[in-house]
Design goal:
Elements lengths: L1 E7 L3 E8 L5 E7 L38 H23 L9 H6 L6 H18 L10 H11 L2 H14 L4 E7 L5 E7 L14 E7 L6 H4 L3 H8 L5 H12 L2
Antiparallel strand pairs: 1-2, 2-3, 4-5, 4-6
Helix pairs in contact: 1-3, 4-8
Length: 252
């Protein structure tokens, strides 16, 4: 008769066979399988078909980890954003719209044209989103910081308002920081792929920061915990780019 004792260790599996007759011990060491890293593609290989092209990501898919994982970034950019871009190009092909900028399309949009509304919004919104993210730490400064303090009280107040706007947006949508028609900073949200450049939105103005709260932006890593995603994303906001966009509104 033989007794078999099995022990699972962290780095190896040791199987010990003990004979009741001769008490000889035999150890077999089996290496634990090596965990393979998820293979992700290269954003430079993602190409759209038509007038509007993909804005190049200024970082690799994995650059924003652990706050935004590489697989989410790859799917978000190469599937969702590419889809909006290609569908936008189909909507404008052969029309006067093909001669307009994306901003001109959005500001003169017929909201009843749902296909154009969704895809033009999706194209613009994601372009902004990629721009205002970065792996390099930054903080509001200079004229932007002064304006935040003047209009919203403090950076902490701004971040709290943006988190609340994103958390309270029912279903899919976006949280925004805009410069409104009065030249003041304002926080708000829009559903789906709507944005503050479109007519008759609840928040109107020039966006300088947008946070995607569609589930495809966070669900692989955060599942239903949108609040955790909103906490994490402020670790990768490119405040220098936000400042640049703010300053551009002041030059008009």
């Amino acid at each position: 008769m033989k007794k078999v004792f099995v022990t699972l260790a962290t780095l190896s599996l040791i199987v010990t066979l003990q004979s009741c007759q001769d008490k000889n011990m035999v150890e077999v060491v089996v290496d634990e399988p090596v965990k393979e890293e998820a293979v992700v593609g290269n954003p430079e290989n993602v190409k759209a078909e038509g007038k509007f092209q993909m804005v190049a990501l200024p970082y690799a898919y994995n650059a924003l980890e652990p706050h935004i994982d590489a697989k989410t970034m790859e799917i978000h950019y190469s599937k969702h954003h590419l889809g909006y871009t290609n569908n936008l190009n189909k909507e404008i092909e052969g029309k006067d719209l093909a001669d307009k900028t994306i901003e001109e399309i959005l500001t003169s949009l017929d909201l009843e044209n749902k296909a154009l509304r969704n895809n033009a919004g999706g194209y613009y919104n994601h372009n902004l989103f990629w721009e205002i993210l970065s792996a390099e730490k930054s903080a509001p400064s200079g004229a932007l910081l002064d304006k935040i303090n003047a209009d919203l009280g403090s950076v902490d107040n701004l971040i709290t308002q943006l988190k609340e706007a994103g958390a309270k947006q029912f279903g899919s949508g976006w949280a925004w920081l805009v410069v409104n028609k009065d030249g003041k900073l304002q926080v708000g949200s829009t559903p789906n792929q709507d944005n503050p450049l479109m007519p008759n939105m609840a928040i109107s103005g020039t966006p300088i920061l947008g946070i995607d709260v569609w589930e495809h932006a966070y669900y692989l890593h955060y599942q239903n915990k949108r609040a955790d995603y909103l906490d994490a994303i402020f670790n990768v906001i490119n405040w220098n780019k936000v400042a640049e966009k703010f300053e551009a509104t002041q030059a008009k």
